[in-house]
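S., here's the first fold you wanted:
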Amino acid sequence: MLYLVGLGLGDAKDITVKGLEVVRSCSRVYLEAYTSILTEEFYGRELILADRDLVELEADEILKEADTSDVAFLVVGDPFGATTHSDLVMRAVNAGISYRVVHNASIMNAVGCCGLQLYIFGETVSIPFWADDWRPESFYDKIKKNRSMGLHSLCLLDIKVKEQSIENLMRGKKVYEPPRFMSVSQAAQQLLEILQKRREQGEELGLSEDTVCVGLARVGAEDQVVRTDTLRQLGSCDLGPPLHSLIVTGRLHPLEVDMLRLSAAPDALERLEVVDSSTYTS
């Protein structure tokens, strides 16, 4: 049996009782190590760290003997928060291996902590690190589309773990760059650059520097940070260590506005415009 076990967001103690029972009963336990910074501890047994190469290129190693013994694959957040895990399930099914999933909280629902209502979110957006020769803007277009429908946009920020430089990749050297985790300020700065560029091109913008956004850091942890401010102000904020996420708001219900005030910087909500008797926008 293959078990996919969600670990939650805060720390090792966020695992469910059912998940912990599975971990302690399996013959092998893998901990996904490339999409998170959660350390291995607490579970009372040896964990096999599964890096990107193992999960994406050598998944059969994880499934080895899972048809005759129990194997657990631990995932920070919820197991189906990434398409990689769906691929692992399909590999197991095709190999005749049964699987079970132990769900847990993920950033996809924990963002409700900021006060925005989950059912008013549109398509989730990924914001990648820009490079000198690669500066995609498709994430802006998705945010613009969400806002045109009055929907909020959850932006998942880039994580670079066990990445190789082009030079080392071409030389076949297993030398990796230091880990990088995109911050809210970096994501906001990229959006601000796109706004300036699109404005110069005469395009009708989907948001502005004064659009109300929410920066989140270390959601679920004891030192969780939620800050509501304009996009411009978030471009220079410091929310501390990773992991970070960014929300670009759409239309706001009065209750959402009241909740945002709990984490809002001074004047952050002063430029909200009334759309109708029960809706605000920025």
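And the second, which I think is the more interesting of the pair:
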Amino acid sequence: MKGFRCPARHGYAVEVSPFLPSRLACATAQYYGIAGCGTLLVLEQREADVLLLRSFDWNDGLFDVTWSESNEHVLVTGGGDGSLQIWDTANPQGPIQVLKEHTQEVYAVDWSQTRGENLVVSGSWDHTAKVWDPERSQSVCTLQGHEGVLYSTVWSPHMPSCVASASGMVVRDELYLKHEGLETPLQGFLKGADVAGSWAGDGTLRVWDVKAGSCRIAIPAHKAEILSCDWCKYDQNVLVTGAVDCSLCVWDLRSVRQPVAQLLGHTYAIRRVKFSPFYKTVLASCSYDFTVRFWDYSMSPMLLDTMEHHSEFVCGLDFNLHIPNQVNPQQTTTEQWVVDNSQYCSETDVVVVRVVDCSWDETVKIYTPPCLAALQEAAS
């Protein structure tokens, strides 16, 4: 396991480059995102260590990051001031563009992965999702319908103009808890905190048709705030949600009365969920219980592995899409994930990562969990 530490910066999101298998970006914030500025870290994993290639500061916390699917140097982050920042790693001076329409924190950003689209979706605490063309200064459309804050917005990897979003509950009274002496708005931080107040409405998973600007389906997926959702990479009808109730639920859009599977094991709120790009029923989750867990909902037991290498909330998680010179047996013929690593770097200089995560403990971790190593060995 390799790691990188950035003092006084608490990790909120991490994503591996879709172009360069050893490159990743991490969105961070000072003071746990409650006050202060934010920093975007662009990191490079090498054989012996992890190097900081670039760092970009912003005047508010940064809560999510996504790489461009059309330009290997471009990234987008979402900030606590309600703006999206577009960065170019070849331009160290600052953001090349700032998009500002949201009226509250932007907690989610995602770049479309389908061909023919060059769009970004953002989700905000102002209860809206917005779709952006990075070449324009104004949003393409606004998706309205959630009654609570949006924590997650994700493009379908299968269907153009299709977005999933997950929301928290409507807070009728202001709720606070204390974390290391800081007064913090609740909004899904912990399960079972000693707080006062009342909830009302929402807590749904929604699927949107961006062209029509309308919600096609709304699923009351949890009786708690939903902090994350993700699409299965092999089935356009399957998504997973993770919530403050400590559970993950796998949903089939063709039948939403009950989840396909419910995954239990976390002891505090689940902050982020990710489907594996290589195995249809394998996914990962990270939590405020300081753990990262790996699951296969087609097996019994469904829990494959628990990683306990952080000392604070784990907020960011991603799989690396790149495995050199390998086609996984579970892949369909239309999905080509083979990457020739030699076009990016020498084999002796760079090591391809499998999983990356980031935490409020100021670290980014890069590793291959034993369960994934075993899956690959069995497949080969």
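Why I say that: The helical segments are 370-379. The longest helix spans residues 370-379.

Talk tomorrow,
H.
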